[in-house]
Amino acid sequence: MTDLSRYVASAVSRYADAMELTAVPASDGSFGFDFEEMGRVSIVSAQSGEVLISLTRRLLLDGVQNLAQLAGLAGISDDDGQTIHAARNKYDQPVLVARLRQEDIDPTRIEGVLADLDGRFKSLGW
Fold this sequence. Notes:
- By secondary structure, this protein is an alpha+beta fold.
- The protein has one domain (6-122): 2-Layer Sandwich (Yope Regulator, Chain: A), CATH 3.30.1460.10.
- The protein is 30% helix and 26% strand.
- A six-stranded antiparallel sheet has the order 1-2-3-6-5-4.
């Protein structure tokens, strides 16, 4: 993983300021925010140079039906044509990930991507 560019780090800081949060990069250069209802937001740089914005829900997935529902959340965003990936982390929590070009990152885009990811989870009552 590479560090986020200054441009992206600045956009993340402006997003955090608007949400009345403090943006402090982790030792690997990524940013993370915990929201009571929405879950864990992570913003990291991919090796390709793109930016990954992920949302992790704090619930445990068990059973094939939940995994199938999670897989069904993946696809193309109706809002902007962004591809959304679905996975689960090592704790069996559901994760949705959007991959964006660095030049497409700004506070409004971060907020829109997170609203899309959150809406996908809410569509399942998660």
